[in-house]
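Before a colleague's protein record goes any further, I have to sign it off. Would you go through it and say whether the fold makes sense for this chain? Take the sequence as given and treat only the C-alpha cells as open to question. The record follows directly below this note.
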Amino acid sequence: MRTLITLIGLHIASVLLFLSGFFSVSLLDTIQHDRETPHSPPPPLSRLQQSEISTTLCPGCYEDVQQQPGVPGSSGPEKNISKPFVDKLVLILIDALRADFVFTVKYEGSFGFVAEQMRNGKALGFIANARTPTVTLPRIKALTTGVVPDFSDVIVNFGASRLLTDSVVRQWALGGRRMVFYGDDTWMKLFPDTFLRSEGVSSFFVNDYTEVDNNVTRNIEKELLRSDWDVTIVHLLGLDHIGHLAGPHSSLVDPKLREMDRVVRKMYRFIENQSGNGLVVLFGDHGMTDTGSHGGSSATETETAMVFLSPAFRNANPPSVASIAQVDLASTVSILMGTAIPRENTGRPILPVLKQFLPVDALQTALCDLYAQLSVRRMIRDEEKHRDVFGLCTRNVSHIDVDTFDKILATETREESKAYNVISMGCAVIILLLVTACHLKAALRSRMKGENRGQRWMMAVLVFHASSFLSSSFIEEEHQMWYYWVSTVYLMLLWRCLTEKKTKGMCYVLGLMVIQRVLREWNRTGDKWAGLPDVGDWLREPDHNFSLNAVVGLSILSQLVLVYITGNARRSVPGIIAAGLYQIFGLNWAAWIVYGNLFVTVLFGKRTNPRRADICQFGLLCLITILVRPHNVVLVTGLMVKERFIRIVLKDLEIPNRLICLIYHSEAWCSWFALGNSNSISTIDVSAGFVGINFYFAPLHAVLILLHTYCGPIFWLLSFCCFFSLNKQPRICDWKTVHLGLGIRSCFGLMAFLSCTVQRYHLFVWTVFAPKILYESVHSVAFCFCMIGALLLKI
C-alpha cells in the first residue's frame, strides 16, 4: 500500500512538473503576481533598446512610468502622448458573437441597425480571427494587449487576477483618459482601481441570460446622461449563456441579437448627438460551435465579428468583409485615443478605420511608431530587404506609402517564440517513465494460466495506441482508435464463444456490437467529421422536440426495467424517475432528489455490503442521466445495457484478469468519446455545472462539470469493481490489478508528454498537442484519485 501511494504521488508530481515546464508557469510566479501593486508597470526596456528608437517616432512612449500621468503616486507634469482623434470611444463586447451572427443574410434582420449603417457607409465590418484557446480570459488579454496570450490562461480562466502585461487600458490611464466599465467582472479583476465607474456581473452562471444583461444595460442608460468619460467598455454575456444552454440555433438567439442591436443603436445615437466624432466598436471575444461550446480552433469558434460605427465615417462601404487578426484592435484604438501602443503588441493598425479619422501625416507617424516597437524587439524578419521603406521613418516620414508599409509589416512580422522549461519537462518525462515501469513490472511480474496471450495482446495495444500520440491527426481522431479496440475485443469474445459453443454468450456479444454501432453514430466527434449531421443533431432540432421527449421517456423506462430485472439497487428507482422528470419537464427540484439520493448512497451505505459498488454505480447513473443533454440520455441507458452484457459474457468465459482490466479500460474511454467528448476544449459542457442550481458556487459547479466530463470512465471503473466483487474474484484491492490500471494510464500520459516535448515547435502545438496535454493530465490525476477512493472505501 505504501509503495502504491508513493507511485501515485510521483505520478501526480510529474504531471504538475510537466505542466509548469510546458506552460512556463509556477507557484512562485503566482505568488509574485499577487504581490504586485495595482498599477505595476511591465519590465522597462533597457537604455540601449530605448536609444535605438528615434524620439521623433514615438515621443514619450518609453519614459519611466513614474513620470507618466494618470497613475496614483506618480510625479511629473500631466501630459498626454498626443491629442485623441475621437472624442468618445465605446467598446461593446458581446460574448460569443460569431461572425455569421452579423454578416450573413440569415441574421441580417437581427442586427438591423448595424446592417443599415454598413449599407449607408457609416460602418466598417471585419471578420476578426481569434487564436486558440477561444475562452474569455485569454481573449480579453489579446484584445487589450495586442499579444497572443499563453495557452496556460485557459487553466486560470475561472480565476482571473491583475494583468501585468502592458495594455490599452493601462495606457489610457497613463494618458488621463477617463473610463467606465459595465459587464463581465473579469475586467475588474484584470484592471482593478482603473475605472471611473464600474459594475461587474458573474460570467459563469450560465442559467441566467436575461438579468445578466439587464444589469449592464440599466447602467448604460445612466451613462447616456453623463459626458464625463472618454471610453465606455461594455461586456454583455447573455448570448454566450444561451449558447451554453441551448446552442446557436436556439429560438432564444434571435431576440438576444435584436436586444444587442438596440444597445448599439443607443450608443451610436448618443455619440451622434454629442459631437459626431466618436466611435462605437461592436465585437466578440470568441465564437461558438454548433453545440454552443467554445475553446477549440474550429472556424465557428475563431471567426468573430468586429464592426466599427461612427457618424464621422465618409462613404465607408468596402466591397466585402475583410479578415483581420483580433489582436489588431489594441493598436487601432490606442492610436485613435492618442496614447502609446501597448509595449508587447504584435497586431497591426486597421488602416480602413484609421483613414477615416487620421490625416495622412499622423497615420504615417503611427505606422513608424509600430515599426519602432517591433524592430527593437527583433520581430521584423528581414529589415535589410526593406531598408528603403523602413528608412523613411528616420529620413522623410511624409514619403511613406501607408498601404505598402502596412503590407510589408504584415508579411515580415514574426511571432515571439514561446519559452519552454525543457529541464522541467524532461524531468517529468523521466519520473513518469520510472513510475510506468514500476507499475507494469508489479502488474506483470507473475504469469497465470492463459494469461500469456492476453498479456502480449495487451502490450501490443498499449504500444500501438500510445505511439499514435506522435501524430496530430491521430490525436484529433483518437476516438477512432478506441472504437477500433472495442470492436476488436467484441470479435475476440465472439470467437471465444464460437470455439467454446456458448450460444448465449454469442447472442450477448452480437448485442454488444449493435449497441456499439449505435453509440458511435449518435455523436460525431473529433475534427474531420465532427461537422457532419448525426442522430443527436437531428433530435436537438426544434421541430423534433416530441421525438426527443419520446426517446428520453423510453430511455428512462428502459432503465427502470433493467433495475427490476437485475434485482439490484432498487433504491435508485426514485432517482431514475426524478432524472426523467428533470430531462422532460425541466423541474429543478427533481435534480435535487438525484443529488440527495447519490449523497445518501455513497456516504451512508454499509461498507461491508458486497453490492456496495453496484449500488454506487446505479446512483452514479442517475446523476449522469440529469447531467447529460437530453438527446444523450439514451446513451446512458446504452452504457447500462452494455455493462450488463459484458459482465455476463466475461463471467461465462475464462478471460485472464489482466485482459479484463484492458477491456474495461477500453470501454471507459470509448464511452468518453461516445458521449460527445474529444481532445478539444470546446466539447466541455459548462451548462452541466448548473443543472438544477439557481445560485453561484464555483466549487460545486466545477465538481459537476468534472463529473459530467468523466462520467463514462468513472462508470466503467465502478463496473470493474462490481465485476470482481460480485463474482467473488480478487477485488480491486488486489495490488496487481491496481498496478495494471495505473500502469496503462501512466503509459498513455508518458507518451503524450514525450510527444509534446519532442514536437513543442510543431505548427499545431497549441491547437492539438496543448489541449491533449491538459486532458491527459486531468485524466491521470482524476484516475489516481478514483483509485485511491476505491481503495479507501474498500470497493
